[in-house]
Fold:
Amino acid sequence: MQDEIYASALFVLAGVWLFGAFHHGMLSRGRQVERSQQLFAVFCALMAGHLAVRAIGHHTLSYDALTGGWRAEVITAAMAFAVLPWFLVEFTNARPRWPRIALSLYVLIIALGVAGVPATGPLADGLAPWHAAEQPEAPLSAPTLLYTALLLGLVTAQLDGILACRRRYRSGTAGRHLAVGVALAVFTVGTLLELMRLLKLADTSPAFELSLLPALVLMSAAVGQDQRLNWMQALLDHVPAMITLKDRNRRYLLANKAFTDEYRLDTARLRGRTDRQLFPGQDLTTSHQADTDTFTKGDEVETEERVQSPDGIRFLRSRRFPVFDSNDHIWAYGCVSEDVTASRNADLEALELRQQLTHMERVTRLDAISASLAHELMQPLTATLSNAQAGLRLLEAHPLSMEPIREVLADIAADAKRASQIVRTLRDMTRHTPSPHEPDDLSEAVREVLDMLGAEMALKGVVCRRNLEPSCIATANKPQIQQVLLNLLLNAIHAVEQQPEGSRRVDVRAELDESGAVQVSVRDSGQGIPASEMHRLFTPFYSTKPEGMGIGLAVCRNIIEWQDGRIWAESNEPEPGTTFRFTLPAQESQFASQRAEGRGNRS
Amino acid sequence: MASNRSDVSVFVVDDDASVRRSLLRLLGAAGFQVAVFDAPDHFLDAVRFNKTDSCCLLLDITMPGSSGLLTIERMRQRGIDIPVIALSATDDELTRRMAKRRGAKLFFSKPVDDKALLDAIEWVTALNQNDG
Structure:
């Protein structure tokens, strides 16, 4: 009766394995999946066959049928176990391949041996001493020794597979290797129990068959996951952005095609490796910092990076985000990077063009102004000089004729007036037209300028930190203040450009100082300005840049001072670089000064 | 060849009235016969001779409209061959080069010193006399 139940259970198990074979066979049908999927289907099918044969064996009672059953049982098991090392090699990518393939050949040779050994006779007795000793009346001896050898081969393959899975799991690849490793361990325990039964150490008859069930379920789930991964991989591969997933130890779990193509990497080679291993000798400071930030903040981090790829320097806009497990622990983080090199280059070109244009424009405008100014001024000067000299000659020739001299002097006076008028007109022309001063949030004004320069800073590897307090309200002419800021920031960028990458920093702050005035500061990490030059900075036509005209800071000072502010520069000593600061009266002090004016008028 | 300043006629073409008047006074006081014109066209219309030793043209070559430089060419086309002294309120390399190429004998940048100008007039008109 127990045999009946046992046989039925075996049939059910065979059915389950058959379903596994069918399931994985269907999954791999017509799709490009890893070969391990197909090998697993074959393995399932052979195991189903083996279990079915075992179940049938329990129903037969005739001696010959029992012998034939044993033979078929061992042969089907051997074939299934011959597929197992192949599957494991494909699944874990273990190297070298040949010992594993040899193992499966060894198992196949045993299967052939089982098929070839006669049921009775001295050879059979010699090969199966234990079985003969236990059941002398049933000379089913031949397969037993071979079966033992077969199981030993199987255990070897299983242990090797467990170790390979452990290696893969340790190297950071997904949990499916863990699942397969555990399944293999269960399977190995079952196999060892079966060996004990064969060696008469214990009666563990259903353990082997039963161990197969959890092994199948775990393995099937894990191998099936591979199919889901492929599907996800296919999706990811068709996204133009570069996508990667790394584990906590910064080892790659997956990467899409855009990424592997960009860096000419092999997907199989990439898994389980770190950036340092994949990109030796590259400066990875920015991306490492971003990785660390993602972990410590546990939040999204967006960066612009400059990286060296086989195609040259690329600019990436990357978004890194943590991936949480069900316990809200970060177990990995993803990174989606967009190649913005093209637009950056366009920005750069536009920027260079703009800079060239403004410079050209300034130079030509100045040139034109000075030329026309010279021409305009020379005319009255010519007339004045000639008149004066004519007057002298007239006096010499006709000392008493006053009328020509009077005319000469009148003309000289008129020309002098004309010359001074020309100068006055020019001054009016170049003077800034006064525009209304409105209470304005300077932080906002600063932010706008920073946003405008964001691309340029990223392009030049300048890290800009901003610390803008909200209520920095000052009564000022916003466009002019922004012009000052633009000037200071461009100077700062210029100052840090020559520094090594990583130490190009510009800090911008907007805050209220102790007197209540709004103070804006631009601090750079450049090489600094010698103390002896400091006092000349705001002097017109003084410049430290070879191509500079030396009017930028002079204009800045004019603008700030017109608005009742103050601008100055100070060294960051002992740190490198210079800080430019300007203050503008806050809104209230403006009212105060208006009141003061009112009193002044009355008195 | 003229032997006396009063035998030498100096034509002045300048668009600036004040400059014209001052040159008229200066050259007149120095003893030259002077005629002033406010535009090259007026000068060209007024000229009734072709070639003479005893006159020269003081030409402002940086005038708006019909540029002074073109005047020399138009003069040559009409066969008027008198020495030209170029005056210019714009003193740059290009203007100097153009003046020379178009055939100005001398170039002065404004304002011009009376002594230098009078010497130049005497030189181009080959007047052998010193103003003292």
